[in-house]
Fold each of these.
Amino acid sequence: MEELPHQQPTKTVTMTMVDACWDYKGRPAVRASSGGWFSAARILSVELNERLTTLGIAVNLVTYLTATMHLGSAASANAVTNFLGASFMLCLLGGFVADTYLGRYLTIAIFTAVQAAGMGILTISTAAPGLRPPPCSDPTGARASASCVPPNGTQLGVLYLGLYLTALGTGGLKSSVSGFGSDQFDESDPAERTRMARFFSWFFFFISIGSLLAVTVLVYVQDHLGRRWGYGACVAAILVGLLVFLAGTRSYRFKKLVGSPLTQIAAVTAAAWRKRALPLPADPAELYDAGEDKMPHTKQCRFLERAAIVEPWPSPAPCTLTDVEEVKQVLRMLPTWATTIPFWMVYAQMTTFSVSQAQAMDRRLGASASFQIPAGSLTVFLVGSILVSVPVYDRLVVPLARRFTANPQGLSPLQRISVGLLLSTLAMVAAALTESHRQDASLAGATPSVFLLVPQFFLVGAGEAFTYIGQLDFFLRECPRGMKTMSTGLFLSTLSLGCFFSTAIVSVVHAVTTSGGRRPWLADDRDQGSLHSFYWLLAAISAANLVAFVAVARGYVYKEKRQLADAGIQQQQQQLVGDDDVAVHA
């Protein structure tokens, strides 16, 4: 009998797939070869360049508009805040496009290219002599004098085209970077869930590093080598970041489009309005609901529940009661959302009038030093304050707060925001006092040191560390599960509206204080104005808003506590029913 040849045992390779994730070809994503830190790092490179570009423009734009484009102080400040406001507001558009049509990957790629195009136009605008007005014939005179020729329509048009194309690109990619980065980690896996928590820490770190590079290296290049070199470097950095991002396409994890939550809000609101004449059932059980993840019924805003009333066929299908409850939850968050806007109005002053203050002060490192700190680089103290405040909070504030509260995180999100609002109020008080001292000294023939501005930058930076993280935690925690993608948009819209509010209040103050031939508060010549009065006004607004926020926060019940309370009520009701059954049987 012939002997059979010896056969080697076959090795079976088991590939673990990630639930609800696909690769770039639409196949189920393999855990071992997709996602993780390698993919997330490529995505973070895009965010670093975005922050470098946006803040690099914002902190030094006011000096370009006043000194080179010959715009007034108020007009220059409004141009900066409008640029920042548009950048953050367009995040809502970018999020809608990503959730509904393109997905996060394509949204990041397309809008990064748009941002590069905008920066390219800005580079041309600052490099071409014909796109800038000629220098003032009397450089030592006042900027508003007849020796300075104002920019024409074409020059302003090209400049604003570059700015707002950059803002469009920033808004589009910023809305998707954090979400696409978190998509690279599987929340259902304990190890990857831990890595995802670390990803958000690194995300904030990369934002801070980009900010630090913007207010130091980039501002120095703009002031000493020329803006065309600074903006050109941003174009190169964005394009390199885009290539790094695209190179990771094969390793990314993708998720299917789920639609924008804004569509859900609009559908519920429209359905409730259409059925406004229908009687609302007394028992919520009569309303339509479906799905597994149902939210408990609440008694607020019951008029929206008409959207879940079942109508006879062939009427449109009703919204589910869970959809209605998710919209209610968003409405509960709006008072908190509204009372955080003034913080970012104060923050906007750090890139406008505080930079103008720095221009009028002694920026030498020493009395005999020839090197002058660029005015826009004073923002480094704001960024440094953020980097210091985060570890101080984790190492000192949290352990101390645990002794007085039952919260293991130290302070609740709303408590953190309230601390940030308090610090912003104190920052405006410090800014007002510093400006009064600077003006008095200047009129007496002295030039105070620019380092007197450090307290206001430091207080706003520390306030941002508390407010930014508190807001992000609040919106992520309190947004309904089906609306998580909108939480970033809600948060960033407060930054946008804060900038637009700054534009509005600057315009109103400038119009009111210049009427009747009076001396304006926001004069082009700082010594002839009353900038300190403007800061006192902002301090008063911030203080009033802090009181309103505390009142709102005291009345707010966190979603987790509300659900526990609802579960307790339901348990009591079930206990009562059980007692009744026992009584009947007895």
Amino acid sequence: MAIALQDSAVHPVGEPIPPYTDHAISVSLPKWEDNVGYEEGDPRVLDVMQTGYPRFFIHKNITKLASICASKFGTPSESAMLFPTARSAEHCRVFVAARSVPARVTHFAMPGPAPTTIVYAVLFPTSEFGVPKQFWQHTGLGISSRRAEHCLALLAAHSAPKAATKNKHYTVKPPRGVPSALLVPAGSDGEEDTFERDQALFLEERYGRNLSAQAAEEAKRAMKLRIAGVLVRDERGEVEVGVSVRGASVQESDVYLYPTGMSAIWSAHQLALGAIGERKSICFGFPYTDTLKTLQKWGPGCHFLGNGVDSDIDELEKILADEHARDPSTPPTLALFTEFPSNPLLRSANLPRLRQLADKYDFLIVIDDTIGNFVNVEALPYADIMVSSLSKIFSGEANVMGGSLVLNPARKHYAALKTHQDATFENAYFDADAIFMERNSRDFQRRIAEIDANTEALCDLLHAASVQGGDASSPLTRVYYPKYETAANYEACRIKRDRGGRPGGFGGLFSVDFSSRAASAAFFDALPCFKGPSLGTNFTLACPYTIIAHYVELPWAARYGVNDTLVRVSVGMQDREELVRGFEGALAAARAVAAAE
């Protein structure tokens, strides 16, 4: 069910998005000044933050569990960061130790029925919190808020006295299909807590349409089949499997699920390093911030070609030729990472030309298709590895994190990648998260079609009213959208007709730029929609992207066209006419401010 624009426009700063959602992955920053205040540490904003994007804001459930772990295993001057596996915790310890911060790993076995739930903690000096926090943000490997909630519930159940039950017929029973551990957050002991818990659970459950906890593996399998593109029919409990629509002979066994999209990207880089060898990578196009950080901070580093246009491929060819001439016995690079299209400039790389270079110089191509998504584009044939954030449009509900990694069986290094991946992969995706993600994703193709149509209507309207579109007097200078940016490159991979006869769309994300920050702020403040981080939501969501993602490096971002006046919009499923009216009003506000400047 879509959230009406008028219901989202007045959402207070610091409140979760979606509202009343314990595991929301966005947070309301409704005014331009709120985003600046967040980045500058303004208590007016920080003191009311109830949640935030999970890799940037550590959820209160996780903070509480980490505090328990630190008090149990650490010293008074130490804090803990929590991970689902021993290996991920050790990766964090190594990262922290390499930056001259002492750290050690311990584990915390939760009381409760078998199998035992274990959390791994990295203990470090509290004064050095920023260093392990980098690892948490860049890798996305930390525990999820639902895993923390589950652990807190086990601890609470173990420590709480057993109350006598007078009549078993009057005891409270969990809703059918809901993991009982999710129903008892630590510290709940009153009717008000029970009401709030039940209300939150009702909203998450969406009328009980969920799987049982015992069906988590089946949920993961269903998602892998969807991502592999082999499902001919996937509705009302009826499943029919056919040939993959991904453009390669992908099978369920070629798909791997991760706790977050960023952990899939980080793991793709680790997979390449482990299976192929230690060499520099290439970051092609201006990427989401942590992708570049991953390539820079792990392994031998990377070449950064930040514009992502065809002229950058000319520069890349020269780099490759020079490296090959220096040492013809070794491939000049390990892997090229690119987004299709990119975030936030919606540029699409020339994948056929990059593939030719990869085959010539024997390197991998890793493509992030989160924004384009495989309903709209067929990019896998050009990739060795495909990664995606399932937290975005695959879920749509903004209440659960997840990521995927797909190996292309048609590529030269498939056998080496597959062998290494199967030997090292850890099934760290928490069962409850998988259950919610599976439920959310059942209708993702229908939602994408509706969102694509809404987005194209808005972008056509805004493009016509921009300097780029011919209105020289407009404060709106440019609309970044695959229909207008590197259009030929996007068109080369756009699906012409899917199984249902629908052509691929241009996705649900676009960015707009203005002639001044005042005009940008006026436009943003006037938008009648939720404002906060993340994208790919079923409801419209906007943010001043460069302010929120690159505030400490604004001049650097501007070198690649990512200006501090940029507003990024993820379009939802609201009524199209209402969306158009809302964006027309925001543009009018920008025009008024620009006229007064």
Amino acid sequence: MSYPHLFSPLKLAHWQLSNRVVMGSMHTNLEEADNGFTKLAQFYKERVNGGVGLIVTGGISPNKVGALAPKQALMATAEDADKHRQITESVHQAGGLICMQILHAGRYGFHSAIVAPSAIQAPINPFIPHELTSQEVDSQIDDYVNAAKLAQQAGYDGVEIMGSEGYLINQFLVKRTNQRKDKWGGDFNNRCRFALEIIKRIRVQVGEQFILIYRLSMLDLVEDGATFDEVIRLAKQVEALGVDLLNSGIGWHETRIPTIAAMVPRATFAQVSRQVKQHVNIPIITSNRINMPDTAEQVLANGCADLVSMARPFLADSEWVNKAKNHQTKLINTCIACNQACLDQVFEGKLASCLVNPRAAHETELNFEPTKQPKKIAVVGGGAAGMAFSIYAAQRGHQISLFEQQSELGGQLNFAKKIPGKSEFYEMLRYFKNSLALHNVKIFLDTCASSENLADFDEVVLATGVIPRAIALDGASYPKVVSYADILSEKVKPANSVAIIGAGGIGFDVAEYVSQFNTANVEPRAESDIAQFAQQWGIDLSLSSRAGLKRTSVDKSGQQANKTIYLLQRKSTKVGAGLAKTTGWIHKAELNQQGVKMLNEVEYQKVDEQGLHILIGKTPQILAVDQVIVCAGQESLLNLSDQIVHQPVHIIGGAYKAAQLDAKSAIKQAAILAASI
């Protein structure tokens, strides 16, 4: 398929973009790592070589008080600018354009020196900010200007001024966080003064041929956020001050509404940028949950924006643009919006990467160079680890044969794709299967590997995965006791009254699956799902309600009255405490919407005709359920490992370690082995 809108050039005042694709801002923590700027230079260069028209860097603070964390990279001195030159030179040598994002965290900074328009603590931060004096406000503006001037000296083609997501500029704009009585607070004209002064003073200092992007919060999604009229008033004033591009920001970080997670239908918020676009004449960039060319093309064709911004999709595949342009969409390694290796790791202080592409942000370290000694390698197991290893090793020139005892590839991914909100796993499987074919991997389905049919190979990789762990429980042999694999393989249908033993990631997935069984659409979500999603989470996409909020709590209309579901765990911690930082709260909220009862400190006694007998504390209870689903972990499937004695054997994925099994670690392990074998 061709994408005429996506690949049409765009003329700015002094620049021309080769296509309508922007690589959006994305902090990787390389900015603070040893030799990090050298690594970032290669990271960005590969995305330019992959066809990206314009890059915006991760957020760089203009001063220490505006940093997100104590050691965050700054653009405050000439020495800071010197560090960035290798990035801009690398991008320009590859023929690309790059803008540096200036991000002042305000009350979102995770350190004791944070500042804000008012001393109001953020609900996601333990620190109370210092309220800026009027003189200090002017000083902060000076630091923004200084950062822009230094970015220009460092060779950047422009800057993006971060005015959304609840950061400092956004904090000045709304009464929720700005309760000042001076010229920087009060009515809207005063509250937007901070943003406008920053833009005006930067433009004076950098001249007309320096790109200015303003990241406008188009939908705050928090109480006492901006009205749509205020958003448009600010957009028009920003345009009048000479901004070249308006980028869309959706939601503050403290909002309790999903905006970028996998359960958000693709391009949900593009209609917001379309409404803003009707009121300004400068190009509009739209963002959030655009991960495939068909979606991007449709957004542009529908007049929702002039450009599309994608961040995580370029972690997943640096060649995204070239593949789309060269009619190789089926070979795009798609971002599945899981956040596991990118945002979750960044918030833990680790380097960002990507579940589907562990090489992301590790381009100087993890490479798949052609091998000087091609080998015949047998891979046993066609799950995430086996498929990933096969692709990477075949890419290096090894001859790979992949054995899978089931009738289809995928392993545990075939379970994941069935979970409501995880339909992007279909794309992951599509990429794997097409890439295996591209690299001439021989695939043997319905084949049980043995030492005999592996005898002719130089080396063997066991990626045989896991089996569900059985539970030692009186009555566990009752027909009503089943494993999560029985349910997700559709061997057994979920009952209407269910107790789920185990509240880890799989337990939550099974609860989601059971709660929406017979009602969920698990195929990749269409535009028709957007209205349902907005209704579920109380989002007003018509923008008639302040900040885009219809109500203060999520909608529970999806709850099915005829279902009773218990999600149980032995631990005393809150159910779901171990889930991922950026998405765990969403999963818990969704199960609450579905009426799932979550119980901790549960001791399992027995199963009988009455149901599941448990103790909570010392109090006995009987859960009168028709089905008990066991999600009590997995065990490595290693029955083949002792039979292979004549070749080197490598064990990866769940076969290597079943505890806390996830596709992220399985694929990373596979990639590291493939790079070295």
Amino acid sequence: MLENNLNNSIITESVKNLLEAYQCGKREFAQLNLENADLSQLDLSGINLSNANLRKAKLVGTKLNNGNLSGANLERADLQCADLRQANLNEANLKKAKLDAANLNAATLIKSNLYSAYMPRIQLFQANLQEAKLGDVELTAANLEECILDKVSLSGARVRKANLKKASLKQAYLYECKLQFSDLTGANLQKADLTKAELDGANLTQTDLRGAEIDDAKQANIELAILGKLDNQIIEHSLHIEFKDGLGKYFTFSQDGNLFAYYNNYRKIVIIDLHSSQEINKINIPREAVVSVAFSSNGQTIYHSFYVNELKLWNPFTGDLISNLKHHSANFTSLVFDSNGKGVGVVGTGEPFELHDIGHETRTLKGYSSGIQTQAYSPNGCFIARSAPDTNGQIELIDKQTGNKIYIFDGHKAAVQSLSFSPDSKLLASKSAEDTKVWQIETRKEIYGYLQSFTSYYPYVAFTDTDNKSHQILVTSDFCGNFERKNVNSSRKNGSDYNFSGDGGYSCEAHIAISADRKVLARRFDEQAVQLWNLETGQELSFSILDSRYSYLMALSSQGKILAARYNQEIALWNLHTKNLICNLTGHTDYIKAIAFSPDDKILASGGWDLTLRLWNVQEHNEIQTLSVPEIVLTLAFHPKEAILASGHHDGTIKIWDINKMEEVHSFKAHQQEIEALAFSPDGKLLASGEGNRGSIIRLWKLKRN
């Protein structure tokens, strides 16, 4: 209570100082903290409160006309009946603010956030709300005459009985917007999305609906509206082929445009002839896991890891494996505790690799592809446990003193790849590629077991370039890491019964990027160095980004000379020849989900959670344009021959952008779920799209000019 009183006194003092300064002619109060302040009924005309904190402030009836509140935080502020005529509210945060009956005539609110704001009867005559966020807003009986609402998001908004005469709503997103009995006479809704909008009783006389998506709108009387196609609408789409067994993120076109490959639900790569639309081959992708299991120092936890790191080249017509490229700098092949028994490390050095028994010697072993011959020594010095690939998952328990075989543990589904005794030597943990088991040494019984599932593991697929059309090469990259733990607790004092609970841990997959000429492939796993391969020679190129702030998201320029990598909310550009950082591109305000180079490498496109699609000049290292979008951008793809960019969004929508005009030229609902992958065919006539991890549909779309 005392703290609240102190805060209130500080706020009151701030308001008092502001009023005294204002009365003396001062108008500059940028970045002032007035959270929860009561400024009701005051005359603050012409004041500058840019970037000020007015969260939850009371501004009922306050005069702020001609004021500057750009970038101000007005979240949940009470602005009922406030006078904000001709005020500057660009990029202000008015989320959930109360603005009922407020006067904002001729005010500017470009890119302002009005999500869930309460604004019935608000006056917005000739106001500019271009690219503002108005989702779920209440605008019943509002005056929006001649208001600019281009590219705004009014999804789910309530705009009943509103005056929208001659308002501009070009490319506005009005999904499920409630517009009953609103007056849209002479309004411009070119290319607006009115899907599932409610328009019963709305006046659409001379409303320009050219290029708008109006078919699914409810009760829309469009007899007096302006309909037809726009002269500059250049793209149309139609569904060409659908693959319902496909996994949405894993597909590729061949460079000659004749083949399409995708990974299906049955862990096979399917090859499609695009001329006949027929399947011509299926390739089984074998999985060769390297795993490890270990007890913690107190015996109360079991750790195990799974790791795959393969780059394979296939003949797509025969399914034959051409070559297998391995990189082992990051292999998670064994678990090792530090000297005090508290920390756990995961190491591996390739083939041959080192396998560490906890508290014992290090051994160098071979046999990556056929399984791992492994053995472990009990801490009390009495036993040796060992297994080999040709023993059908059996484990031999050996008396260390005599060398005699004591017992054979049997039951694993695959060759045992790792063994570990508990610190008290009473338990033995064993791990194969398919299952994990724990054995009690005294009773010789299995006391715990479970199967390993790899449902989240899928390979990357891409075709490489070749001059011989009959000798296409398909590349797959298997790269997945998994690290888990199980708690082990004795249920009795003598420890004869054990409970195994919990299933914590983490798993990682690498991000893959391939150059447009299909000659260079980049791959990053967790916080390890970036790996680069020359796909023509099969040689690994020398390059590394070791800073953990660079995430998996990467893109390669068309000839593999520049690598773009996400760096927090920035994008870092690297010169792969000099190994030097070129620059950091800044501007995004939230998580970046997609980056892509244009075919000529002059433009880099990026998009993500901040509902923007940004275009960057790669040579001058600056931003060219920011395009606002109504939904999160998850994937991007440039047209190979024209200045066209496709963006895939969280709501299943694909948008087509004209890069020369810097505007959207087409939009359509492609999937019911989020779109996580897009790719143009080499001739640009087909666009492939795939649903996210929960989906199982890949679609090929025909694109053409009208």
